[in-house]
Amino acid sequence: MAVYKIIGTFGNSFSNSDQINLFVNSGTIVPSTTTKFQLEQGIFVTVNSGVTITAYTSNGTCANISDAVDVPNTPVPEPTEEFDCNTTNLNLTINNGTEGDNVTGTAYLPDGSLGTITGFSPSFYSTSVTTYRAFITIPSGYSNTGDGEQVIGCDGTATVTPITSSHLYYTYEACDGSSDVDVLLESAPFSSIERRIDYSTSKYYTYSGDAGTSANSNPIKSLDLISGTGCPPLPTYYYIAVRECTDYNSNGALEDRVVRSLTDITGWSHVLIPRYSGDTGAVYEKYGSLNQSSLATAYEDGTFDLPSVDLDNTASSNGITVASLEKTTCP
Questions:
Q1: What is the per-residue pLDDT across 284-297, written as a single tens digit (0 to 9) for each?
Q2: Residues pairing with 326 in the sheet
């Protein structure tokens, strides 16, 4: 067996936390699971020379998408240099900003390309803070690429311009019933039912009241104003709990998960959840007696053995209909 480096390329619909399972047509592969984020940066795998590696997503919006690559007969040398804040020619800049605005900055990598900053701490400019930490994605070509660290935190300084105003913080209520948030604005919301969105979580919020010149105990968020007022109508999903017909993950147990669809699937006895394009063998059987409310909670919380699955997204990503996922027996 030999060590090879593999790198994945993904579309915008994938999330960094999407789980990627790896298979080979001969022998074994180590590791056999990774994430979209790690594979996009590049990971080292141990396999036999000349095999075909197949990767597919097992959860998320783009679940059950797969692709394959043939392994050459000559392994790629593993890098020895570690990427850290002292890496030569790593150039981090924290931009100056205005109190309450989102912190911004840039990180240029040693090869001159613009690196990826996943976030800052703190995330908002404050007149009492001069040092801000940027979380920089570890690029490919380093010994700690894709080893679970994923990012490193490096510090930089910025000058913050204060805002003087009589009423800056406003409280917004989450449409899904989760925690309220406080939003720092330069002017009052235009409407008592103004609608905003947090694009990082796809959650909607509506204005619910003033919080004053300082925030309440609610988390401070930066929300984008969008068209419409009030909370948008929520789609009606149907949920069932299902269990593997066969030990597909070869871990000695029949594992369970929650699936949902805009189609009424509550009468289904079995469901196909393809692991890759064209898969017809991964059939699950319905089990349990939880009500729809409990299943909806379990779907969001991920309390079952396996990640929850949206059958509408699964069918769409495989170019098939939701109805074709209904089965009547285990294979």
A1: 999 988 899 999 88
A2: 271
- Written as one letter, the residue type at 25 is N
- Can you tell me the distance from the alpha carbon of 185 to that of 169, in angstroms, rounded to the nearest whole number? 6
Cα distance from N-terminal residue to C-terminal residue, the chain: 34
Contact yes or no for 71/23 (Cβ under 8 A):
no
The strand pair at 169-174 and 151-157 is best described as: unpaired
More confident residue, 238 or 176: 238
> Which of the four pLDDT bands, split at 50, 70 and 90, describes residue 230?
confident
CB count in 10 Å sphere of residue 54 = 17
C-alpha to C-alpha distance for 108 and 123, rounded to whole angstroms: 20
Structure tokens at 331: 């294979």
Beta-bridge partners for 221: 183
Tokens linked to 192: 């008592």
Judge contact between 52 and 25, C-beta under 8 A.
yes
Each residue of 89-111: pLDDT tens digit?
899 999 998 877 889 999 998 88
C-alpha torsion sign, points 111, 114, 117, 121:
positive
Tell me if 48 sits within 8 A of 26, measured CB to CB. yes
H or E segment at 52?
A: strand 52-57
CA atoms within 13 A on the CB side of 63: 19
